[in-house]
Amino acid sequence: DHRDLHLSIRRQRQMCIRDRLAESREQALDRMVEQAEALDANAVIGLQFQTSVVMGGAAEMMAYGTAVVVE
């Protein structure tokens, strides 16, 4: 059925988008940790993620927080 095929394609696209967003979130987190370590921090507090649409079909994922030294 044509409707089933359309639904299947739509689900696959949503899964692909979800996977890419998860990968982007991990990359943003990794970069934040690298920057915190470069400042000799051993923790990040107030961690937040933000996603915004840059242009048609593209988005950016940002992670930010405060690098601190916990003793």
Question: Overview of this structure, please?
Answer:
The structure is a single chain. With 71 residues, the chain is an alpha+beta fold. The protein contains 1 helix and 2 strands, in the order αββ. It has one helix at residues 2-38; strands at residues 43-55, 58-68. It has a two-stranded antiparallel ribbon with strand order 1-2. A hairpin with a 2-residue loop joins strand 1 (43-55) and strand 2. The longest helix has 37 residues, at 2-38. The chain is elongated. The mean pLDDT is 88.
Major sheet: order of its strands?
1-2
Share in β-strands = 25-35%
Assembly annotation: single chain
Rg, Cα atoms, Å: 18 Å
Mean pLDDT metric: 88
Shape type: elongated
- Can you count the beta strands? 2
Number of helices: 1
**What class do helices, strands and sheet pairing give?**
alpha+beta
End-to-end Cα distance = 63 Å
Secondary-structure element series: HEE
Please summarize what this structure is.
This protein is α+β, with helices and mostly antiparallel strands and 71 residues long. Helices cover 52% and strands 34% of the residues. The longest helix has 37 residues, at 2-38.
